[in-house]
Design a protein that fits this description.
Helix 2 crosses helix 3 and helix 8 packs across helix 10. The protein is globular, with a radius of gyration of 20 Å. By secondary structure, it is α/β, with parallel strands linked by helices. It folds into 2 domains: about 140 residues, no CATH class; about 130 residues, Rossmann fold (3-Layer(aba) Sandwich), CATH 3.40.50. It is about 30% helix and about 25% strand. Strand 7, helix 8 and strand 8 form a beta-alpha-beta unit.
């Protein structure tokens, strides 16, 4: 089967309706195929795998798939396609002073990112396109060939909209007049709001509170992700974030998501019960930070992420520096199948690498 045929087959998977046994079989097949492909096409990846692992002919479960540390993308150029096939370069934002990751995309990987994202988010929003208020500035999406996690997020979620407006000016200040004009134009309609968590908190919510401004967004749905470390430092948790958003805007539907630039597209959305869910095209394992052995449901450790999307670079199986635990599989009260889990933060003394830019 050719790569294009394989990609087409993968896109036929239902986002949250596959039982664990069927999903693991399909996902393992893709992990085996991608590992073999990247071993051939990316010599630096092959070198790392050969040094870290015994022969990998036998991958009998997802736990056997060799992973690489996410930090490797900061220090090594990892590409599995010729330079001429690279159409975009994505960078992690991180914090100032740290070298960003570089992720190289070809047409197949870029297309997969978009199509998988659409299938995941549509299961939460439906298929109807909505007017969208981006809690960011328009300048963030200026460079379409070389862009950050923020750029990718905004462009990705813009697919779900027929009319996009930006709530912030280029100096990241709140543009009250523009917001009110947008809301007036779409009065009585469902509205999608999207942004990165800390930017929403600092530049949108706190400014609304300072101005004592309440927005009529009872029909709004807010999707946000990234930047939680700064909120944790301010002693703000998910419940307080949602509560204060509700008081300032009337929004009741708030979905956090977890993801990273190294696996753009295969995001993990927060369900109505407050848990992050792995879609058909991705999964997580939890590993002990000392010996990297897989941990059972309920035990906290480092989050390992698997995704079928990365074809142009070996990012299909990576070990993050985030700490979390699996709550369950296939039995969430939201009725979505798959692994559902919680993220607790970053491993202490790990290099800080956030999803939103420092600015």
């Amino acid at each position: 089967m050719s790569s294009k045929d394989t990609v087409k087959s993968v896109l036929d998977w239902p986002a949250f309706d596959m039982a664990a046994s069927e999903k693991q079989k399909k996902l393992l097949g893709e992990m085996q195929r991608l590992t073999e492909m990247h071993m051939i096409a990316c010599p630096p990846y092959q070198s790392v795998i050969n040094k870290l692992y015994a022969p990998i002919e036998n991958m009998d479960s997802l736990q056997d798939v060799p992973f690489i540390p996410v930090r490797l993308f900061k220090h090594q150029r990892l590409s599995s396609v010729p330079e001429r096939d690279i159409i975009k370069t994505m960078t992690s934002s991180g914090t100032s002073g740290h070298k960003p990751s570089q992720i190289f995309l070809d047409k197949i990987t870029a297309a997969l990112q978009v199509k998988v994202l659409v299938k995941i988010v549509s299961s939460f929003l439906g298929s109807k396109r909505l007017p969208m208020l981006v809690i960011d500035c328009k300048a963030t999406v200026a460079d379409r060939k070389r862009f950050s996690a923020r750029t990718a997020g905004i462009l990705g979620f813009s697919i779900f909209s027929h009319n996009v407006e930006y709530a912030l000016d280029e100096d990241m200040s709140l543009n009250e007049d523009r917001i009110k004009e947008f809301l007036s134009k779409h009065e009585g309609q469902d509205i999608l709001l999207f942004g990165f968590t800390f930017i929403i908190w600092q530049n949108f919510l706190q400014e609304l509170e300072r101005r004592q401004l309440n927005l009529p967004l009872e029909r709004g749905t807010l999707i946000h992700g990234g930047g939680w470390k700064k909120l944790v430092n301010e002693a703000v948790d998910n419940d307080e974030f949602k509560d204060r958003i509700s008081k300032a805007t009337g929004i009741q539907k708030v979905h956090n998501y977890y993801g990273m630039v190294e696996q753009t597209g295969s995001i993990f959305m927060e369900c109505e019960e407050g848990y992050l869910h792995a879609p058909a095209w991705a999964d997580i394992l939890i590993r002990d930070p000392i010996d990297f052995k897989p941990l059972p449901i309920g035990e906290k450790g480092l989050v390992q992420l698997l995704s079928v999307i990365p074809h142009s670079y070996p990012g299909h199986c990576i070990l993050s520096e985030d700490v979390g635990f699996i709550v369950g599989i296939d039995d969430c009260d939201c009725h979505r199948k798959g692994t559902y889990f919680k993220i607790e933060g970053r491993l202490e003394q790990a290099e800080v690498r956030g999803c939103s830019d420092s600015y």
